[in-house]
Amino acid sequence: MNNRVARYILVAMGWIAVALGVMGIFLPLLPTTPFLLLASACFMRGSPKLNQRLHQHPQLGPILVNWHQHGAVTSRVKRRGLIMIVLSFSFSILMVPLWWHKLMLLVGLVVLLYCFNRLPIVDIQPDSVSVAELDENP
């Protein structure tokens, strides 16, 4: 019974992460990729069928496959991420009144940009992801 409850919780968390990821497509400050990765992780443990369906989705699947196969993001995702990181940190730095808060935010910005820029870029073509590849690398 306890295992069943854990699976239901994981599936529910997966669906919430999918919803937030889809919202991130349209809302610039909400990231898509991390939520889809979280959904995939939840579905892997809670419902492998849902995980497979998520990986086979025409729009969301290639993001996950790119991450799972290459540990990379597309150039579009990276460009949007960099722009949003710089904009949100710049806004925060302008809004906080204390100089040491500004300094902490600036240090955080530099560290985050360093880590984010180290992510590899692999642009995949829509036709290059096949169902056979998805079955080999769940």
UniProtKB/TrEMBL annotation:
<dbReference type="InterPro" id="IPR007401">
    <property type="entry name" value="DUF454"/>
</dbReference>
<keyword id="KW-1133">Transmembrane helix</keyword>
<keyword id="KW-0472">Membrane</keyword>
<keyword id="KW-0812">Transmembrane</keyword>
<dbReference type="Pfam" id="PF04304">
    <property type="entry name" value="DUF454"/>
</dbReference>
<keyword id="KW-1003">Cell membrane</keyword>
<feature type="transmembrane region" description="Helical">
    <location>
        <begin position="82"/>
        <end position="100"/>
    </location>
</feature>
<keyword id="KW-0997">Cell inner membrane</keyword>
<feature type="transmembrane region" description="Helical">
    <location>
        <begin position="6"/>
        <end position="30"/>
    </location>
</feature>
<protein>
    <recommendedName>
        <fullName>Inner membrane protein</fullName>
    </recommendedName>
</protein>
<dbReference type="GO" id="GO:0005886">
    <property type="term" value="C:plasma membrane"/>
</dbReference>
